[in-house]
Amino acid sequence: MDQLIEFPYCGGIVRVQVQAKAVIVNFFGQRFQFSATKAALRERVRLEIRKAGLSSQLDRIIRREAATARKHM
């Protein structure tokens, strides 16, 4: 169940793909994991995901990423 969200940001179009296990952000031809984006863009992506009604899915993904990061420490 992939969801695609697009919105303008800093003169470009941001495409956010919300997948079952990850959030992929495409910005000016670069692909980033949600957690690897800069803070301002990350907050805008979070806002747009909430507007689309997918905030619970985003929260699950973030928790899963945090748990994985703790295992590797």
What is shown here, in short?
The protein has 73 residues and is of the alpha+beta class. Helices cover 41% and strands 32% of the residues.
Alpha-beta classification: alpha+beta
Strand and helix order: EEEEHH
Overall pLDDT confidence? 90
General shape = globular
* Percentage of residues assigned to helices: 40-55%
Low-confidence stretches: none
Main sheet strand line-up:
1-2-3-4
- Tell me the major beta sheet: 4 strands, antiparallel
Q: How many angstroms separate the termini?
A: 31 Å
Beta-strand segment tally: 4
Strand content: 25-35%
Specify Rg, calculated over alpha carbons.
12 Å
Report on the structure:
With 73 residues, this protein is α+β, with helices and mostly antiparallel strands. The protein has two helices and four strands. The chain has a four-stranded antiparallel beta sheet. A hairpin with a 2-residue loop joins strand 1 and strand 2 (12-18). The longest helix is centred in the last third of the chain and has 17 residues, at 55-71. The radius of gyration is 12 Å and the shape is globular. The mean pLDDT is 90.
Keywords:
32% strand; 73 residues; 41% helix; globular; 4-stranded antiparallel beta sheet; 2 helices; alpha+beta
